[in-house]
Amino acid sequence: MKAESIPDEGREEHGEVLDRDVVDELKTSYLTYSMSVIVGRALPDVRDGLKPVHRRILYSMYESGLTSKRPYRKSARVVGEVLGKYHPHGDAAVYDTLVRMAQPFSMRYPLVDGQGNFGSLDGDSAAAMRYTEARLSKIAEEMLVDIEEETVDFVPNYDGTLKEPTVLPARLPNLLVNGTTGIAVGMATSMPPHNLREVVDALLLVLDNPEADLREIMNIIPGPDFPTGGIIVGKAPIMEAYHTGRGRIRVRAKTRLEVGKRSRIVVEEIPYQVNKANMLEKMAELIKAGDLQGIVDLRDESDKEGVRIVIELGRDANAEIVLRNLFAHTDLEVTYSIINLALVNNEPRVLSLKELLKHFLDHRRQVVRRRTEYRLRKSRERLHILEGLRLAIERIDDTIKIIRSSSSPEEARGRLMERIGLSERQANAVLQMQLQRLTALERGKLEGEIEELTRTIRELTEILQVPGRLERVIREELVELKKRYGDERRTQIIEGGEEEVTDEDLIQRKDLVISFLHSVNPRLHSFLHG
């Protein structure tokens, strides 16, 4: 049926569009698509530092019991659980994400403990998911702790059959310590990893002094800390990136010079996210083409212990000039772009370092408050039951008489509520009580539990009501996190990164002799001799 033959009032039920400008339609559709990509796939949440696929993998593994103390399970099983329950997209995308979370050269603190071939610095792909095995790493469990205590909101999954968390409780400041990358529609994020000890100390500083400035924070966090180590050249670009949320830093390999019969440059660490095999291939091509002079041999002696690239130098080669040429023409030195773009209340925002710290602390305040309210409610409910049991035991003769003379549980419940003064929940608990609770030992345990619950309720109430008490809980948990998982900084930061290497710096200085020969050419003779 043609649109012209349908009256205006009937077009809606036939699914026809009355009037719609194609430009407006494209704008609306593109905006809807872009926001779906930004919020639902490409950018991390500022609170737990995770994109939806990362969060779903971790939660699915937790829900399946794949904790750090349980046996490994096939990665294919994990991927299947994630696809079937929470993330109905391609299995390759889910597995690639899982693989990256298990790579110690990709994440500063891996969230997945992998067993099998999970790829290498040379860009080798991981083995197929049917061969590898995985479970949560120990530090990943800090992302999920307290999730069953109503600390975060849950929403229906894609088909409405299950619930999934909108964010994880995240005791670990994951966004700062592991960083992230992502490309959305019209925007991208590139956040570097940091050292856990330094991040925790900076969080404690901001917790104690919310007015702390960037210089004070950078006295604690001098810069990123990459899993592959390396050297960051220049401190000013780091400060600029931390202040504005955007910047570019230079990261170079860690090298040392071995002097012997023939000197050699040994590369011990390479820049973050550099493919070692591709770097060596390009290096070999430049040597063969004569663009890198002074190098007579190139070997990759890397093993499970770490990176070791040996660059043999010629007898007359100047090691400093050769190294500068390597930095200028190969990935032994790269530029790392920092874009601290994350979702804040589902809106993309570029954030400074201090803002990132504050948003994490705000999240922890909410989590600890909700956890405390949950525990307080459960403690009060349990105390209410115990007080009913104690009252029933104190009047045990009346209680037994009422139960024995009642014709049904419903009648017994009503008479207990009326004569003993119990609530409905207390009466139900009395009816379900085992006879062993009447012994002197059990009565003593009952009194002890009541006393312990009373003390717990008082402490939980203080956390919610006494100023500064909640922050003290956050501080204690952060200190424990640092003590348990903190390690030494891997990336060195040096001064002097502001100047650029010029072409003259790449020329080896040699003594030259220039001689002029007498020419029989009259024109040349007159030019030389005036």
What does the model show?
The protein is an alpha+beta fold. Among the domains are: about 50-165, Alpha-Beta Complex (Topoisomerase II, domain 5), CATH 3.90.199.10; about 365-485, Topoisomerase, domain 3. About 45% of the residues lie in helices and about 15% in strands. The strands form 6 sheets. It has a 4-stranded mixed sheet. A 4-stranded antiparallel sheet has the order 10-11-13-12, covered by helices on one side. Strands 1-3-2 form a 3-stranded antiparallel sheet. The protein is elongated and about 140 Å long. It starts with 7 loop residues before the first helix and ends with a helix.
Summary, kept brief:
The chain has 530 residues and is of the alpha+beta class. Helix content is 46%, strand content 14%.
Radius of gyration: 33 Å
In terms of DSSP E residues, the strand content is: 5-15%
Structural class comes to alpha+beta
The CATH class label of the domain at 366-485 is Mainly Alpha
The CATH architecture term of the domain at 366-485 is: Orthogonal Bundle
CATH-defined topology of the domain at 366-485: Topoisomerase, domain 3
Overall average residue pLDDT = 89
Low-pLDDT residue intervals, each spanning 5 or more residues:
1-6, 497-501
Q: So, the CATH homologous superfamily of the domain at 366-485?
A: Topoisomerase, domain 3
Strand order of the largest sheet: 14-9-8-17
State the separation between the terminal residues, measured CA to CA.
Answer: 97 Å
Task: State the major sheet.
Answer: 4 strands, mixed
Give the helix level as a range of percent. Answer: 40-55%
- Number of beta-strand segments: 17
Shape: elongated
Our count of helices gives 19
